[in-house]
Amino acid sequence: MNLLDECFDANRRWAAEQVDRDPTYFKRLENLQSPDMLWIGCSDSRLPPNELLARPPGDIFVHRNVANVVEHTDVNCLSVLQYAVDVLKVRHVIVCGHYGCGGVRAAMATQPLGLIDNWLRHIRDVHLWNRAELNAIADLGKRTDRLAELNVEAQVANVCHTSIVQDAWRRGHPLTVHGWIYSISDGLIRDLGINVESAEQIPPEYRLY
Ligand code: CO
User: Fold this and answer.
1) What is the pTM for the complete model shown?
2) With 90 as the cut, is the pLDDT of residue 133 above it?
3) Quick check: helix, strand or coil at residue 95?
4) CATH class belonging to 33-206
5) Stretch 43-69: mean pLDDT, rounded?
6) pLDDT over threshold 90, residue 119
7) Ligand 1: distance of its center to the CA of 159 in Å?
8) Could you report the per-residue pLDDT of 167-209, keeping only the tens digit for each?
9) Which residues on adjacent β-strands are paired with residue 176?
10) HSE of 170 in the Cβ direction (CA atoms, 13 Å)?
C-alpha cells in the first residue's frame, strides 16, 4: 500500500474508532469551536500543540509557520490572530518556539536555501539585535537555542504591537500574550516568563493609543 492510501485507511479506522467509543463524538465536535488559547508555533513535524498540552480537540486555535515568526504585514498570521481575538475571544496567545529549531539554525548559517531565506531574515534581525550576547556563547547548539528563545521574545513583542491586540486591550478584553519554548529531547515546555497583558508593557513608540 502506498503512503497516501495508508493515510486514508488510517483515517477511516480512526473515525470509526471515535464513533465506537462515543457515537456522538463528531456531532459534539461540530459545536465545539470555543478555544481559550491561540497557539503560534513552528511548523516542525514532531510535536503538535494538542499533543504537547494533552488538550482535546476544540481547545486550541493554531497558527504555525517556519520558526514561529509573527510579521506585521503577514496577512495570514494577522488574520488568524484577529479571528482568534475578535471572534473566538481567546484570552491567551502563546508564542511557542522550540530548541533544536531547523529554521533558527538555518538563520545562523551561511548557506542559501531558497525563498525561505527571506522569511528567516526576521530571525537574522533578532540575531543582529542580540549579537553581543549570542557571540559570547561558544557552543553553537547553545547559541542556537538562545536565539530560539530570543526569537520567541521578539515574536511576542510583534504580537503585542499589532493593532489587533492593542484594540482588544483598549476594549477591556482580557488578553495575555505569553512566550514559551519546548524541547524535543524531553517534550517539556519552559515558560520564558514573558507575559504581556497591557499596553503599558510595550514601548511608547509602538503604542497606538
Ligand atoms: Co522549528
Assistant:
1) 0.95
2) yes
3) strand
4) alpha beta
5) 95
6) yes
7) 18
8) 999 999 999 999 999 999 999 999 999 999 999 999 999 999 9
9) 92
10) 11
Is residue 1's pLDDT more than 90?
no
Q: Find out whether 203 and 161 touch, Cβ atoms under 8 Å.
A: no
In the chain, the percentage of residues whose pLDDT exceeds 90 is 94
**Dihedral angle, C-alpha 203, 191, 73, 168, nearest 10 °:** -70
The separation between the first and the last C-alpha atoms of the chain, rounded to the nearest angstrom, is 59
Q: How many angstroms separate the CA atoms of 88 and 198, rounded?
A: 20
Determine the distance separating the centroid of ligand 1 and the alpha carbon of 174, expressed in angstroms.
29
- Spacing, Cα 98 to ligand 1 middle (Å): 6
Evaluate if residue 34 carries a pLDDT over 90. no
Looking at the annotation, which residues are catalytic? 42, 44, 46, 98, 101
- Backbone phi and psi for residue 200, each to the nearest 5 degrees, phi listed first: -65, -20
Give me ligand 1 centre to Cα 44, in Å: 5
Neighbours of 144 (CB within 10 A): 21
Strands across the sheet with 60-65, in order?
A: 60-65, 37-42, 92-98, 176-182, 189-196
* 203, amino acid identity: P
**What number of H helices and E strands is found in the chain?**
9, 5
Q: What pLDDT score does 107 carry?
A: 98
22 contact partners, CB below 8 Å, separation of at least 6: 28
Q: Kindly list the domain boundaries of the chain, sorted by start residue.
A: 1-32, 33-206
